[in-house]
Here is the input.
Amino acid sequence: MSTYLRTLGLEAASGTQSISSARLSEVTGFTAAQIRRDLANFGHFGRRGVGYSVEGLRLELRAILGVDIEWSVALIGVGNLGKALLAYKGFNQMGFTIAAAFDNDQRKVGSTLSGLTVEPISKLAERVRELGIQLAIMTTPAEAAQEVLDSLVASGIRAVLNFAPRRLRAPEGVQISNVDLTIEVEYLSHSLSQRRLS
Amino acid sequence: MSTYLRTLGLEAASGTQSISSARLSEVTGFTAAQIRRDLANFGHFGRRGVGYSVEGLRLELRAILGVDIEWSVALIGVGNLGKALLAYKGFNQMGFTIAAAFDNDQRKVGSTLSGLTVEPISKLAERVRELGIQLAIMTTPAEAAQEVLDSLVASGIRAVLNFAPRRLRAPEGVQISNVDLTIEVEYLSHSLSQRRLS
DNA sequence: TTGAGTACGTGAAATTTATCACATACTCTT
DNA sequence: AAGAGTATGTGATAAATTTCACGTACTCAA
Here is the structure.
């Protein structure tokens, strides 16, 4: 659904009013049937013989993805990856505002990055409450990850995007999404290796 | 398979000789049956009644994933994300060496980052040949992505990891893996939204 | 108004993926 | 040596996902 929304953004920018599943298929690479099925799952957004209204579908998808409202996000771990995410405009465009940044390294605490002052992790619970943060992005070292997650859960956060290469244990009701950058590269090296053999 | 390999690394570090699918299941979160199926797909690595040899399985998985040899990688686009990836040690640990970094921004060309001098994209084909690069990571802006990919393909690269939020068109035989950081966050905001409704 | 063209939505079929359950094979103790 | 315990590998089964194919609904031109 994210991909569809992004594609619709491009289409809207180029002035298209209406779009068919066939056209979406061309651009996104999914099959047309797949796209129709996906969309029909959430409601009847299209008109037969016509297609989908670009603007209408954008609004629907925004609501489905929950990006029709602004989300406050905490970022924990201001290493290289953390800094990159802080500066990354894609989140803002999608309605995610990184409202606070935390790190345990005394040398980083107090410094300003992309307009945010880095705070110590001990302030986490307090700031989460103050700023109404519901979502966290973890870019901590693997060793610290579980401990940080426990703090996050304790402060009431219920959705976490984890970049640390470690599977985390969280109580029921806390949603964790893991991103492992090396997995993707390994997939490529796997297919290159396979190709070599055949 | 990547996850299994990473888990085995941890187990090896803590001195375990042999590991069962049940134990792997605990740590990785996949079901034991799933793990056995996955592994059996590539060969008979385990011993009944005993389990898998941690070291033996690591070697097998390394070979399967193609990380039993060193890969030379080119990085194109030295923005924040590019810098983060350059400094990211996970790639090195897995046998990926970023051998060259490229950018089209004149202000960046010539600067040194993580021990690499940034080169202009015009040098791409030449350097790919010289360094035997087979794999590229693209962290360019979306607008430049397709053009850069075409250059990469022309210079003989056949596997690309793309962080630019745009679906790329590549000829048959060129493997492209897309990473879109916002998709993961949107998935979380989607499930938070759903939860609110119920 | 009618007919040709377009394109969604969706049952049905096909394919893929995951789970179950157990025969097989190994280890260790008595 | 035998029996109890453990754990793989894999047919069979179940579940999920994708694709096919077509009825339905809309547009436009003549």
Q: What stands out?
A: Residues 31, 33-34, 37, 47-50 of chain A lie near DNA strand D (CB under 10 Å from a C1'). Strands of chain A lie at 18-19, 46-47, 51-53, 71-76, 96-102, 112-113, 116-119, 135-138, 159-162, 175-178. The first strand of chain A starts at residue 18 and ends at 19. Chain A has a mean pLDDT of 93.
